[in-house]
Amino acid sequence: MKIALLSGSPIGTKTRVAIDRLQQALVEQDENHEITLLDLRDLNIQQPDGRNYLDTEGDTLHLTTTLMEADIIFIGFPVFQAAIPGALKNVFDLLPVNAFRNKIAGLIVTAGSSKHYLIPELQLKPILGYMKAHVMQTYVFIEESDFSNKQIVNDDVHFRITTLAQDTLRMARVYNQILQEEDDQYDF
Prior knowledge:
By secondary structure, the protein is α/β, with parallel strands linked by helices. It has 5 helices and 8 strands. It has helices spanning 14-29, 58-69, 86-93, 119-130, 155-184; strands at 2-7, 34-39, 72-78, 104-111, 134-135, 140-143, 147-148, 151-152. Strands 1, 2, 3, 4, 5 and 6 form a 6-stranded parallel β-sheet that branches. Helix 1 crosses helix 5. The protein is globular. The two termini are 24 Å apart. Keywords: Flavoprotein, FMN, Oxidoreductase. Pfam families: FMN_red (PF03358). GO terms for molecular function: oxidoreductase activity. It comes from Staphylococcus lloydii.
């Protein structure tokens, strides 16, 4: 399966630490997946201007085509000012409305306070639903106190990341099997 890991902020390190741990958990599940890491800190992304994503170039084209071709998309993002980062919203604005049709999406959220646990529910899940993603019901929420020296120090967070990887891979396999059974009904 093609898996895209999106670290959705051009600043900070905690989200990337969590995404790296997720990548490790995915590889432990099955080394044969094609995993692509997309970190907004490392990419020069154009501002959305309404053009088709295929008409972009450079990092923007790489980002959008990787997301469009993925079977599974994991999105990690920090909560800033009780909202998703603007840079992450720009990524969604670069894509067509149906960009995530037949894709499974999993979320990892980093925040400075437990007060922000509903941001994924109220802001990101509606966007992903509008773009036709099948969003995993549960997500991993990681607080500032779960990190120390740029590492996750809470064993429960490690467990939840591993569980998110397992559950999302399982859901994608089942969903792909259903799609294949539907395709097999046609003889052309």
